[in-house]
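Structure, all four chains, one model.
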Amino acid sequence: MKDKIIFSIENDLCPVASALKVIEGKWKLPIIWVLCQNGTLRYNELKKSVVGITNMMLTSSLKELEESGLIKRVQFNEIPPRVEYSLTKAGEKLLPVLDELAKWGEELIK
Amino acid sequence: MKDKIIFSIENDLCPVASALKVIEGKWKLPIIWVLCQNGTLRYNELKKSVVGITNMMLTSSLKELEESGLIKRVQFNEIPPRVEYSLTKAGEKLLPVLDELAKWGEELIK
DNA sequence: CAGAATCCCACGGGATACTG
DNA sequence: CAGTATCCCGTGGGATTCTG
């Protein structure tokens, strides 16, 4: 009997486990999704686009996504302040995943 | 300025939100993933394949996935008991998503 | 406008033991 | 073998307030 493919968060052999580790949490995929769809967004635009998210979760999620190299933060030193977020090249590579997920979600709705 | 695409868990207009609602939780995608890769698995095989999962989470996740119509449970009335799990047609429709996710995860590892 | 700082709690999930 | 039944806890995340 052939060996089974396993899922393990511990060792880094499972690509799905590695992927999930980066996009875990309630709000990361939603954030990436709206950035995908809308392109560059300001902080407050993000907050309106991701319905229900709080300042704390938005800020912390953005920070983690930035550290993972998926999104880019550009700060303009103006008054009032302006900060724009967008996907990096690496972040855009998630597009196929989200597209498939959206397709699948559409099926669910109908 | 054109309207922005939003993510909202509340109303069912966002396909990504609808999708995430079904596969939320720490273990559902892992379970679906190993069923994808290995085909039909028995309870204990699942438990070994999804490293770290507890009986409780395995049981409850399987139940929810079954209720969502993504997996199929077949029970054989033997001694000792045997129960086999596999993806339904609907569950297999998640394959493209997982494939893309796995591809993306591979990139992360390298 | 774009956050940071606190406080706080529900609950998702873990550990262990038990059973048809 | 394939689960249940309890007990329990950490922390992900919410609500609110404050600030450069």
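The mean pLDDT of chain A is 95.
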